[in-house]
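Structure in, sequence out. Go:
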């Protein structure tokens, strides 16, 4: 039996950590939760976490370890997918996809793509 109790950190690979911080905090309105330097010299790295306000889980923004950045996906919750899609559609530099779902067991949702090709699925919770 597992001792894991929840998902607390999702991770995306990004080409430029500073540009990613700018996108998530300035364009999406998320919070910068952590920015820590570790290691020394040319091997020094940065651990960066962002999250929607009030979220218990965070998104770590990491440079690629192998290959190219991007290709990840996460889902985030909203009580009103249409209103959030309208808000994000008006933000310059945010690529917003079509609203889908809402019939049967599939909740209303839409995708947002970050500049590195990672997908944030905004999913409506509740009724």
């Amino acid at each position: 039996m597992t001792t894991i109790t929840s998902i607390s950190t999702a991770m995306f690979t990004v080409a430029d950590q500073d540009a990613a911080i700018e996108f998530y905090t300035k364009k999406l309105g998320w919070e910068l939760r952590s920015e820590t330097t570790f290691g020394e010299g040319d091997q020094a790295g940065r651990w960066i976490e962002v999250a929607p306000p009030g979220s218990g889980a965070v998104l770590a923004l990491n440079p690629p370890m192998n290959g190219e950045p991007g290709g990840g996906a996460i889902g985030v919750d909203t009580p009103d997918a249409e209103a959030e899609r309208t808000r994000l559609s008006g933000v310059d530099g945010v690529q917003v996809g079509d609203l889908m779902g809402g019939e049967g067991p599939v909740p209303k949702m839409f995708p947002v793509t970050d500049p590195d090709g990672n997908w944030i699925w905004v999913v409506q919770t509740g009724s």
